């Protein structure tokens, strides 16, 4: 991946010395950060710049209704903003030893993204188009600076962040487990000439050595065969590392391999699914 702000060896490893690049940019960005016209922020714009990923109110009294709203968002968008989640109050009221358990959990990975001002934002991206390789991501973003764009029906939708919301998105591993019922959707980040931006990402990932495959209850050939072969998260990350960020190409190539080679053996798929689902739930 190459961009003004996260250049070099390829996500997920952070290779970011972006402030230095930004400080020395002057009025133009270095050639290597200029995106091909089809990848620039203006490409495939649409939706009239609407900011319409679903917003789900987590404080609704009817839990079933909340679950339905989350499920619909995961099916149709792969993204939603969770508001009234009560995480802050609930979290900080916990005893210290409980709070400490949340620090440095091996199942999570936290990243801070900093996007400095950029003199030519129309030519580049802060983060290139990608889907998240893990289970699920929760983002806290600047509520006064836009930048995150989500692909929907072939168009880039700019997210309008709601104050104190978590932006939640499905990653590739949940798309695999759900046999593509829930979507891990392409997203990217634009930069601004006027304002810098910060975001904080919490990545919830499965155990790295457990083969993940579609859950048996979501597989019903011939109408709905298993769309992905079993693969551990380590193997999947290695696959991505070799290919670099490329939108949804990683999962699509797996899907193609399954179509050519046939469905994975049922025993492997079922033996992995229940434990993988619980590890993803962490
Ligand atoms: O900064 C953002 O809004 C999104 C960052 C992102 O896509 C990522 O960290 O994977």
UniProtKB/TrEMBL annotation:
GO MF, one annotated term: oxidoreductase activity
Biased composition (Low complexity): 263-282
Keyword RNA-binding: no
Family: Belongs to the iron/ascorbate-dependent oxidoreductase family.
Organism: Oryza barthii
InterPro entries named in the record: IPNS-like_FE2OG_OXY (IPR044861), IPNS-like_sf (IPR027443), Oxoglu/Fe-dep_dioxygenase_dom (IPR005123), Plant_2OG-oxidoreductases (IPR050295)
Protein name (record): Fe2OG dioxygenase domain-containing protein
Keyword Hydrolase: no
Region: Disordered, residue numbers: 262-282
Record domain Fe2OG dioxygenase: where: 106-206
Pfam family, one: 2OG-FeII_Oxy
Highest taxon above the source species: Eukaryota
PANTHER family noted in UniProt: OXOGLUTARATE/IRON-DEPENDENT DIOXYGENASE
Alphabetical keyword list: Iron, Metal-binding, Oxidoreductase
